[in-house]
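User: Can you recover a sequence for this backbone? Please restate the input before giving your answer.

Assistant: Of course. Working from this structure:
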């Protein structure tokens, strides 16, 4: 993103909030302004959309420290860092937030740069921004974004009723106008490089004006933002991984489709379970019938279908084959004829003849049955038909090869 929104807050949420939109590509201010208090941050929601956002904290609320280490910086030292600081901070160690900067080595001694602030205070500011859909990419103390200071010098700028200072040894300060001259008397640096008029400064130190670079404080901060030496957006304040735009656009639809798919799979699984139970019941019934029909045979469940087919083939090839063949022809008519009910069957093995006594709804039903069987190449004889109330009773003889 080539445009940034800088939001500089105060120590309390009732203090004014300064903001500025900066273009990196053009190196110029696009817009700037001030809100009376944090409750008006909603006015910046639209400006934050599509831009990188930096939350600038007052230097007076963030303490920088250079911590000496027993060895080179590593993960174990990171876990031990809070215990190393307990004797050097006035607050309970659990109430402060420690942001880790860059490690350094000075005269073969190891150090780690850190920033410390009140945990609840920072959480409140992050929450307020989030409430207005403003998600900072960078959180940094304002004075740390002053131009780098050279050896034995301080970079300085006036911001409202304060002077902000930055030294070259991991040091920043924010001093009220009434105390600034006393502060300068105590600092070891001999030169002050200032980026705003220094008429109010009364000091014996050398004052070097950068008049060509005078600008709004937030504009000067914006130019150093890309090289900020620390970002407090870490640990519990680490930015969540941003979801891609396609996911945000399709998230609701994908979730709905997933729920529907899950419901479909659940229903189909239940149906499959019920069908499997029904199939198991039919299989058990088939095995029971097979045992009754062939009591001397061993039932093999996985070969049951083949066993039944083998037994039928054996019957078809024996003396009962004619009966089965004629019965098979007769059974075929049921799918084609309605209101036809056989009552008795008699089979004459010598003549290979099957006699069926049946009843039907009318005389024409018997004619239909006779016609269907003859079309199958079966010899058919129809006996006498008698009317018995609502039904017609009669006999049909079908004959195969003797």
């Amino acid at each position: 993103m080539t445009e940034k929104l800088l939001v500089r807050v105060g120590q309390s949420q009732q203090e004014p909030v300064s903001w500025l939109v900066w273009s990196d590509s053009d190196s110029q201010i696009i817009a700037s302004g001030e809100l009376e208090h944090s409750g008006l941050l909603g006015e910046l929601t639209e400006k934050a959309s599509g831009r990188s956002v930096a939350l600038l904290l007052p230097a007076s609320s963030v303490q920088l420290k250079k911590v000496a280490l027993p060895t080179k910086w590593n993960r174990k030292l990171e876990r031990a860092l809070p215990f190393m600081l307990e004797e050097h901070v006035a607050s309970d160690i659990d109430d402060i937030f420690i942001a880790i900067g860059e490690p350094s080595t000075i005269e073969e001694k190891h150090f780690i740069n850190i920033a410390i602030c009140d945990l609840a205070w920072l959480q409140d500011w992050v929450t307020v921004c989030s409430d207005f859909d403003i998600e900072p990419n960078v959180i940094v103390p304002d004075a740390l974004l002053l131009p780098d200071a050279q050896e034995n010098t301080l970079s300085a700028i006036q911001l409202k009723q304060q002077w902000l200072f930055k030294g070259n040894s991991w040091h920043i300060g924010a001093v009220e106008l009434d105390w600034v001259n006393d502060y300068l008397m105590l600092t070891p640096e001999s030169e002050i490089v200032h980026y705003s008029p220094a008429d109010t400064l009364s000091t014996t130190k050398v004052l070097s004006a950068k008049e060509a670079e005078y600008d709004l404080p937030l504009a000067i901060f914006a130019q150093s933002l890309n090289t900020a030496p620390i970002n407090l957006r870490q640990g519990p304040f680490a930015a969540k991984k941003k979801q891609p735009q396609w996911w945000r656009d399709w998230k609701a639809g994908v979730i709905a489709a997933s729920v529907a798919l899950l419901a479909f799979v659940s229903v189909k699984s239940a149906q499959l379970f019920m069908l499997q139970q029904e199939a198991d019941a039919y299989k058990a019934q088939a095995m029971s019938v097979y045992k009754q029909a062939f009591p001397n045979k061993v039932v093999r469940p996985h070969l049951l279908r083949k066993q039944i087919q083998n037994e039928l083939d054996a019957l078809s090839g024996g003396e009962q084959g004619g009966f089965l063949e004629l019965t098979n022809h007769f059974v075929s008519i049921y799918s084609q004829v309605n209101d036809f009910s056989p009552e008795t069957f008699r089979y004459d093995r010598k003549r290979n003849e099957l006699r069926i006594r049946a009843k039907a709804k009318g005389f024409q039903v018997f004619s239909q049955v006779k016609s269907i069987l003859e079309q199958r190449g079966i010899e058919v004889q129809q006996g006498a038909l008698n009317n018995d109330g609502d039904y017609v009773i009669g006999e049909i003889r079908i004959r195969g090869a003797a």
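That completes the design. Residues 245-293 form the longest helix (49 residues).
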